[in-house]
């Protein structure tokens, strides 16, 4: 990212619910034109899914007339929460300080206990003479069975005059990210169509409704439909709920085909049996009939049975709770019980799966903009301005195809789950380093422990000493002679470290690369580069370090703001600094995506400095793909960060990377890719400090944190990969196909052209057996985990 920003960041984006023009909505029975008000309502309902829900349930006027506080404590309030609480809490407290000594330190304190266990304690200063409320968000995972206490703390016992005080409690639900949905009513008689002995569908010829049936030919779902939300080339937004399916001629024997249409596309469903299995394959195709940007295109299945099991992206299997929404990535979803049990198993072409518990709506996204969010900083006479590129562009006659498996079996809910991390590890932490404003001394300090140490084997601290690999971005050259004077507050006047200007830096990088550090470009140089320099840099980097990773630097709107960045003009067709051809030629495919830092949609959903963002204690509705592919940029994969790590007080390393935070990350199966500047030539980043001999050395707290991380890794609980290792494994897992071949047997097939090391499976209540493989195992609670290697193209039989 850019080094100096003198103007506060102002994010400019467009409200997606703006309405221009008319649209047509297609329902099961007929079609009709909508006026602007109705269309605006449809779009508003879609947008509503991206807003949190607040349900106020308690307003407490603690002291309507105000009061004078001279004691250490005052205005205490307590509330107990049921162990089955299924909502988070929005706490709003307002107590203006009207008069107080200048050195008074009056604060609100929030305290949570579960029995004798202290869960949370936080104090916040109460500003003087303001009527603005303090807002706190407390996740449901902390509320269950806990006691909330709120009080004023006056540690100095000063005389404080306070105004009228009010406390409000509201049930808080994160955005659902699922559109408001009303299923179509069926009419007329139903024609039962057989797929196999256990799977049937019902078709209503009068309105075209199509429902899923169980083995007794009773409805398993309400009418299934397609939701299609797009923006046309004239900026008209249209949304359709299409459910008037008509039988069509099938191209394969034993296949049922249905078609439907809207002004945006024609859709076809292809349902066919899987030989000798209580399972069907459902193919969903969309043929676009006009140019458009797709915000969401999804198959909707409103189920009549509740979800009994769902697999999160973390690999954890859960039972969905009431009032909750779930984003499952490409995880399976199980509904019903007994002979009405079905398991939805998405294939790789499905973008993502979502579930709404109360409405029992399963949403299978063929394309969804939040699965591949992307922004673009155009060159302009402004600053910090970007536009959204998240929605996919499709042209007339483009086609989108996806496949689902639907298994109808009483044992369908008991099925192994692929885990996102290898060797049975439970969570991941990465350090992704940005190369801004460094010198060789600072790199040696944070990697080897001291600026005096030049050899890896002599390291006394830092990343290399604790064997913590870093994805270390670098500048190749320095044609502008950029120096460290300003960045270091005049402590250093040397040129900032680059490969061509600092031979000792190049030697350091080669040592680090030899022990597993990833070395990649942070763009070729400090400012906008040229094509010859870009090609020279890529040629050198491929020959020396072979990294497929790229980390943008200095993105913004000016001509000098590294126009070659992926989020500037690097991927933009027709632009002078489009280097997509060179990236592809030199094997660059894993790009940092700063979307979640510049569009902080999940910033309100953090808590207690936990490493997981958004914190899963608030729920599991948040869309996020860790290895995102944008349909318009198929050669590239985008990986996110959502927070930096700067520790200006050395003791706080023991707070931010405490054992209990790492434990919580493991318990939730989370990943934290830190965006860091460890070798920045200023103390404020917190990774190094001056010792008594005025030498740069790794900070003691930083070393302690690395020691803790290495211990968690050595215990087999924490994975600490580089970006390319993270992406390689994520994509490899996506290429693993699991096909159930018996009641408790399946075949795993590695469909990629590369081996997968340490592929991990998990299953509750039963141990997994793998035929003809050396398998390692461990148990976490009731979950059994196993892992093994799978060669390119290899298949293995697993049973349980």
Polypeptide structure, described:
There is one protein chain. 13% of the residues lie in helices and 35% in strands. The protein is mostly beta strands and 800 residues long. It has four domains: 23-50 and 187-418, Distorted Sandwich (Beta-galactosidase, Chain A, domain 5), CATH 2.70.98; 53-173, Jelly Rolls; 428-726, 7-stranded beta/alpha barrel (Alpha-Beta Barrel), CATH 3.20.110; 735-799, Immunoglobulin-like (Sandwich), CATH 2.60.40. Helix 8 links the parallel strand 40 and strand 41 (637-640). The model is unreliable at 1-37 (pLDDT under 50).
Summarize the structure.
This protein is mostly beta strands.
Number of helices, where a helix is a run of at least 4 consecutive DSSP H or I residues? 12
As a percent range, the share of helical residues equals 10-25%
CATH architectural designation of the largest domain: Alpha-Beta Barrel
The number of strands is: 52
**Helical/strand content category:** mainly beta
- Sequence stretches where pLDDT stays below 50 over 5 or more residues: 1-37
Mean pLDDT: 91
The CATH class of the largest domain is identified as Alpha Beta
Quote the distance from N terminus to C terminus. 48 Å
Could you tell me the radius of gyration in angstroms?
28 Å
Instruction: Kindly give the count of domains.
Output: 4
Biggest sheet character: 9 strands, antiparallel
CATH topology of the largest domain: 7-stranded beta/alpha barrel
Which overall shape is indicated by the principal axes computed on the Cα atoms?
globular
How is the largest sheet built, in terms of strand order? 19-20-21-22-34-28-27-24-25
* Percent of residues in β-strands: 35-45%
Oligomeric composition of the shown chains: single chain
């Amino acid at each position: 990212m850019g080094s100096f920003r003198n103007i506060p960041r102002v994010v400019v984006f467009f409200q997606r619910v703006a309405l221009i023009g008319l649209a047509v909505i297609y329902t099961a029975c007929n079609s009709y034109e909508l006026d602007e008000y109705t269309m605006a309502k449809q779009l508003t309902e879609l947008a509503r899914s991206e807003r949190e829900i607040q349900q106020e349930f308690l307003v407490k006027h603690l002291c309507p007339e105000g009061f004078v506080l001279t004691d250490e404590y005052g205005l205490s309030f307590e509330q107990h929460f049921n162990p089955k609480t299924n909502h988070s809490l929005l706490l709003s407290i307002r107590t203006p300080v009207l008069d107080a000594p200048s050195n008074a330190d009056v604060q609100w304190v929030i305290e949570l206990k579960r029995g004798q266990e202290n869960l949370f304690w936080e104090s916040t200063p109460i500003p003087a003479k303001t009527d603005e409320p303090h807002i706190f968000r407390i996740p449901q995972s902390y509320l269950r069975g806990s006691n909330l206490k709120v009080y004023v703390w006056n540690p100095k016992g000063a005389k404080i005059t306070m105004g009228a005080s009010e406390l409000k409690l509201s049930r808080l639900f994160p955005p659902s990210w699922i559109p408001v949905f009303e299923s179509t009513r069926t009419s007329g008689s139903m024609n039962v169509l057989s797929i196999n002995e256990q799977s049937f569908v019902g078709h209503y010829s009068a309105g075209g409704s199509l429902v899923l049936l169980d083995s007794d030919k009773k409805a398993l779902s309400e009418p299934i439909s397609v939701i299609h939300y797009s923006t046309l080339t004239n900026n008209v937004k249209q949304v359709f709920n299409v459910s008037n399916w008509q039988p069509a001629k099938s191209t394969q024997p034993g296949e049922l085909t249905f078609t439907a249409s809207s002004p945006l596309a024609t859709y076809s469903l292809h349902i066919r049996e899987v030989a000798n299995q209580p399972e069907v394959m459902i193919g969903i195709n969309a043929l676009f009939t006009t140019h458009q940007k797709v915000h969401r295109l999804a198959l909707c299945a409103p189920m009549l049975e509740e979800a009994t099991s769902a697999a999160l992206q973390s690999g954890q299997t859960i039972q969905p709770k009431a009032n909750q929404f779930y984003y499952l990535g490409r995880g399976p979803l199980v509904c019903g019980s007994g002979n009405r049990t079905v398991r939805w198993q998405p294939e790789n072409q499905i973008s993502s799966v979502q579930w709404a518990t109360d409405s029992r709506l399963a949403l299978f996204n063929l394309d969804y903009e939040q699965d591949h969010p992307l922004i673009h900083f155009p060159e302009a006479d402004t600053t910090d301005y970007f536009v959204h590129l998240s929605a996919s562009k499709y042209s007339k006659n483009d086609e989108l195809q996806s496949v689902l498996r639907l298994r109808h079996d009483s044992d369908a809910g008991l099925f192994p789950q692929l885990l996102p991390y290898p060797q049975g590890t439970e969570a991941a932490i990465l350090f992704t380093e940005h190369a801004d404003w460094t010198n060789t001394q600072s790199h040696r300090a944070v990697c080897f422990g001291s600026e005096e140490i030049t050899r890896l084997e002599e390291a006394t601290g830092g990343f290399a000493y604790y064997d913590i690999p870093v994805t270390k971005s670098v500048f190749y050259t320095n044609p502008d002679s950029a120096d460290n004077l300003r960045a270091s507050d005049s402590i250093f006047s040397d040129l900032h470290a680059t490969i061509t200007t600092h031979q000792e830096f190049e030697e350091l990088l080669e040592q680090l690369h030899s022990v597993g550090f990833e070395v990649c470009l942070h763009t070729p140089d400090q400012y906008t580069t040229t094509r010859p320099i870009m090609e020279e840099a890529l040629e050198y980097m491929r020959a020396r370090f072979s990294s497929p990773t790229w980390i943008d630097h200095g993105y913004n709107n000016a001509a000098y703001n590294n126009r070659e960045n992926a989020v500037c003009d690097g991927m933009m067709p027709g632009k002078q600094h489009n280097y997509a051809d060179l990236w592809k030629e030199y094997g660059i495919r894993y790009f940092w995506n700063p979307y979640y830092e510049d569009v902080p949609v999940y910033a309100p959903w953090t808590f207690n400095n936990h490493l997981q963002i958004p914190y899963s204690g608030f729920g599991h509705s948040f869309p996020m793909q860790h290895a995102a592919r944008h349909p318009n940029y198929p050669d590239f994969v985008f990986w996110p960060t959502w927070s930096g790590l700067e520790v200006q007080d050395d003791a706080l390393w023991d707070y931010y990377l405490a054992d209990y935070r790492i434990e919580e990350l493991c318990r939730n199966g989370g990943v934290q890719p830190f965006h860091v500047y460890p070798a920045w030539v200023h103390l404020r980043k917190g990774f190094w400090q001056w010792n008594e001999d005025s030498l740069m050395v790794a900070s003691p707290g930083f070393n302690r944190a690395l020691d803790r991380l290495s211990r968690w890794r050595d215990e087999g609980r924490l994975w600490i990969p580089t970006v390319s290792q993270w992406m390689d494994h994520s994509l490899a897992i996506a290429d693993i196909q699991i096909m159930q071949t018996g009641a408790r047997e399946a075949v795993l097939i590695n469909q990629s052209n590369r081996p997968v090391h340490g592929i991990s499976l998990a299953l509750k209540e039963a141990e997994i057996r793998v035929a003809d493989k050396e398998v390692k195992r461990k148990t976490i609670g009731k979950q059994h985990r196993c892992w093994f290697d799978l060669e390119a193209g290899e298949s293995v039989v697993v049973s349980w």
